[in-house]
Amino acid sequence: MTRPRFTVALTIAALCLWLAPTALTSAPATRPLIDAVERVGMTVSNIDRSMAFFSNVLTFETISDEEVTGSEFERLHGVFGARARIVRMQLGAEEIELTEYLTPRGRPIPVDSRSNDGWFQHVAIVVSDMDQAYARLRQHNVEHSSPEPQRLPDWNKAAGGIKAFYFKDPDGHPLEILQFPAGKGDPKWQMAKNNLFLGIDHTAIAVTDTDTSLSFYRDRLGLRVAGESVNYGPEQERLNNVFGARLHITSLRAAGGPGIEFLEYLTPRNGRPATGIQANDLAHWETTLVTTDTTKAFEQLLNGRAFLVSPAVASPQMPQLRKALLAQDPDGHPLKVIER
């Protein structure tokens, strides 16, 4: 992709909790720039089909459904002539956002995508019973990524006993279900046992270098490190469906919302970079972050290693976006920063 350029004028910008606490934790001296992770979104090809999947299979509930167009929406997402239908859905306290570009249509997810490719991102949905949840997914003929649910080994103190399974939605977006044993994960997952699907614990992103990503998410945006581990072995290989997988996993949290989890593949290091992906392509994910000051956020991102897709944009045509800007982290993962 030839990235759009940003000038300081008004043109479009060139802008589970599996882990145990560790010494990586670094609290910023001032108030963090980011107050919360509000939701995680993805571009879909048929929004009615996607809504049916997330509702009927995973028990999400629709909370808004609208069409958006106009120059401000185009500027924010860097897609000329855009008209989109945007649906927000909720599970527990967490939300996802589905966007279908009615025009222009984007490209499908590469059929040979792997979990160590740079564009990899998923949401991890917590379940109260892995066997029942997997049976439900089988009943609805979901596409497997993992051959079956995996129980992570007890030698891994951070992740031992966690059960997890990777699968795909109708467009091929990777998703995960996981079940925490007693004593692991957010305590709220242990208390919420009335439903099978409970909520979203985190979104996981493939990163090239953990230190570079920490410099961005922790030091620039103010997220705190919640923990880290190194995961490997046959269970991890089957979970990710990557032979020889050895991952450095780091979990970060804002004051509110799901976590953001780094997946750095120590081996194999043959994942492809996330280049050329536009907002209307189905490989496009979007993590929405909340700030009280988009001007400061713009400066921090511009001075960091972010690629800015847009300046801060506000429009009565986009009430659900408030004042917002779109950026990409050092590995190209899109971040929508909204002001509240």
Integer tally of domains: 1
CATH superfamily: 2,3-Dihydroxybiphenyl 1,2-Dioxygenase, domain 1
- Residue stretches low in confidence (pLDDT < 50, at least 5 long) are 1-29
- Overall pLDDT: 89
- Rounded to an integer in angstroms, the radius of gyration calculated over CA atoms is 19 Å
Q: What top-tier CATH class fits best? A: Alpha Beta
Total strand count, please? 18
Helical content stands at 10-25%
Examine the secondary-structure arrangement and name the CATH architecture: Roll
Query: Topology as H/E string?
Result: EHEHEEEHEEEEHEHEHEEEHEEEE
CATH topology: 2,3-Dihydroxybiphenyl 1,2-Dioxygenase, domain 1
Class from helix and strand fractions: alpha+beta
Number of H/I helices: 7
Structure description:
The chain is α+β, with helices and mostly antiparallel strands and 340 residues long. The protein has one domain (36-104, 113-339): 2,3-Dihydroxybiphenyl 1,2-Dioxygenase, domain 1 (Roll). 18% of the residues lie in helices and 35% in strands. The chain contains 7 helices and 18 strands. The chain has helices at 47-56, 71-77, 130-139, 187-191, 210-220, 234-240, 294-303, and strands at residues 36-44, 61-69, 83-91, 94-103, 121-127, 143-144, 150-151, 163-168, 174-179, 197-207, 224-232, 246-253, 259-267, 285-291, 307-308, 313-314, 323-328, 334-339. The strands form 2 sheets. Strands 1, 2, 3, 4, 14, 15, 16, 17 and 18 form a 9-stranded mixed sheet that branches. Strand 12 and strand 13 form a beta hairpin. The radius of gyration is 19 Å and the shape is globular.
